[in-house]
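Hi F.,

I've been meaning to write this up properly since the lab meeting, where we talked about keeping a consistent format for the predictions we share between groups. The idea is simple: the sequence comes first, exactly as it goes in, then the structure tokens exactly as they come out, then a line or two of notes. No screenshots and no reformatting. I'm using this chain as the first example so we have something concrete to point to.
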Amino acid sequence: MVNNSIAVAKDNTIRVSPLKLGNIIRLIVNLKASKAINQLKFSQKRISMHVLKVLNAAIANAENNKQLDIDNLFVKEAYVGKSLSMKRFRARAKGRASSIVKPFSKLTIVLEERKKNKSEKGKK
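Output, unedited:
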């Protein structure tokens, strides 16, 4: 069954560890798309601008491909996974070397259009 009220955006090569990216993702899940954008714009983390680009891509997919109303979009789910790891070596004392692992992450953001019920419109 295909759900026409969701839009997805992915990025498979983000140069940050999945743990650090997960901390940013927890801030925006279950937020309205406009509030999630503000949350990411004012975040002090380096990676938040990259997450903002993926979120804007998901909003553009919802608007252009699915013809969804961008005022009713919510971040349904966002998840992070491990991607490849760059392996580097650093010179150490006495001719030795130690390995450095530079991890990459995968990011998926799913937006959903939630329509307001008649009972919710009157409540504030």
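Notes:
The longest strand covers residues 73-91.
The CA atoms of residues 43 and 73 lie 21 Å apart.

If this format works for you, I'll send the rest the same way.

G.
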